[in-house]
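Field reference: sequence -> structure
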Amino acid sequence: MSNIRLTCRQATKLLLSRQDRHLPWRERVRLRLHLIVCKACPRVARQLDLMRSAMGKWARYAEDAGEGDRT
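Structure field:
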């Protein structure tokens, strides 16, 4: 069995990956355990979630603004 502990660098890579794909259960467990014991990585996770949410809102705004320009 592979080492269950993640470094912060590995955790960050998984946080970024989970934005684009479903993580296998083993990776989800390893990431969750790391987030429990690390002080910095949960902050990174919240920042990534905030950025994704803001980009989604911006995309919807841009789509709505583009529809209003059509005549």
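Note: The helical segments are 8-17, 25-37, 41-69.
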